[in-house]
Write a structure and sequence with these properties.
About 2% of the residues have low confidence. The longest helix has 30 residues. The protein is mainly α and 287 residues long. It has 15 helices and no strands.
Length: 287
Amino acid sequence: MNHLVALVTADFPYATETLCLFMAIQGAMTVRKGANSKKSMNWFHAFLKSTLTAYSGAAFTNMFMGRPTAMFSNDIFFGACVIGFVIVNYLPMDIGYHFFNTFLGEALYTVFSQVFRMGGVTGFSDAAYAAFKDTPSVWYPTPIFGPILFPVALGNMGGFFMKGFDAYLEKGMPWLFQQALASATFYHFYAHDAEGYVGQTVRGVVKPLGIAFMTLMGADEKESEDDVLFAKVIVGIFMLVMAVVRMPQFLGPSYSPFTALGGMMNSKKSKKVNVAPKSRKNKAKKQ
């Protein structure tokens, strides 16, 4: 199929190793450009901070489902953290940091780390659906919240862990929350909700366009009819486009396509009217 489809679905050689490495590089660059900009942190402090900046979700989220953390069960994850940290901080002449501080370097780790996150959204939604599909509520034939909130927790564990609950949420819903919630919701209902009216309605509206789109992307007849594959492609393209347009060189990290919706949901703040009490002098004059 199309190279874009292969990218967003991580269907290329050494995809796991590549995505894990760039995710680790992004974490190391975040720390190096922020808390460790003067390289004054102890190396172990900087290393663990870089690791948790990149992989807090992978480190802790599986515990909610009673599953082993990927940081312990998959050597590639922790190995990528070591290599990424060395590349950013300890190559001769600081060449790794200087390269990834350029537009090209930042674009590389932005794109590949976002593909990593896209796999997290769909993979964790799949895992939660597989765990709960046989025990839905009496009100709907498909479990709703677990397959959506599990990947949302994955994408925001770093923010909660590094900033704390209040500091992370005090300015409203963070972008990673918005992105994961929108992506996981669409993916879950389109890919998993075979019997519920929401999934059937969404597929009834979107699928004819989806088949044409997948055919345009070079998919064969079987692939064009694959609901899971189409949902992964759409989520992947959306997340990838958002990652690029939110780079500092474009619209910046404050941009969100959901800002207008959020503005409508927020109640309008009433203007404060200062009514100054009449001074005693004015009262005396009237008397």
